[in-house]
Fold this protein.
Amino acid sequence: MKIIKIVDFLADRFCSKCRGDIFTHKSLGTSEALICVMKERLMKLEKENTIEKDFKKLSKEQEIKFIENLILRLESKND
């Protein structure tokens, strides 16, 4: 359930592709929604071009793990 709340939070703030439409993200499924949202977020992090390039090379499972780690980093910065 926590992961859905994270998707909602990120979709509402970061995903211009889906215009923060939380229902669109939920219908995609949790991992696909996270990938959609975080890819959009990563594209906004122009300073860290290597992250985006590395992200494109990852498998689906690696993408999910990468996103989970990125979320943890974002949460720790907000604390």
Notes: Residues 60-78 form the longest helix (19 residues). Residues 2-78 form one domain.
